[in-house]
Description:
Elements: E1 4-7, H1 11-18, E2 25-27, H2 41-57, E3 64-74, E4 77-79, H3 85-95, E5 99-110, E6 116-127, H4 132-142, E7 161-166, H5 169-173, H6 177-186
Parallel strand pairs: 1-2, 1-3
Antiparallel strand pairs: 3-4, 3-5, 5-6, 6-7
Helix pairs in contact: 3-4
Amino acid sequence: MRRLILASASVYRRELLGRLGLPFEVAAPQIDESRHPGETAEALVLRLSETKARAIAAVAGDALVIGSDQVAVIDGEVLGKPGDRDRAMAQLARASGRRVTFLTGLSLVDAESGQARTLYEPFHVHFRHLDAGQIARYVDREQPLNCAGSFKSEGYGITLFERLEGDDPTALIGLPLIRLVQLLGSEGIPLP
Length: 192
């Protein structure tokens, strides 16, 4: 079987990929993740996913390299990782009672041929109506400062939601495994 490399520093993506039971390596790409002027959310996650994978593929020999990126979108506006408590609380206040779309980009790059397959998986989160106290308790408990949308669905963040809709629940955590299994299968990686 070919070497498999996850181009990510994310512990969440590492845990998700581990679910597949395949041996893999991890390498953190050093890329500029800034959004380009006028770039749509879809174009952003596609570009960043592939750029991350290509940065590692450039030094990976004959490996298959997985890149991923995620953004949250409300009314066409991209919400980044909050970085601090005040921004996390503001993002959650804005999401309260609303539907937020999470776009998770996925790219599989064949380091040998340079061929890339890149896509994004949408997932919609319908937030409950949240008051300032609920938001503060959540942010203080879970500290979701490095998460798009200011929550961790795999943790206590599930308490913030009214309902979820999408084809691949792992996309919400940051790596759409259903789509990844399809891409790996097309490369001859047998699963299960």
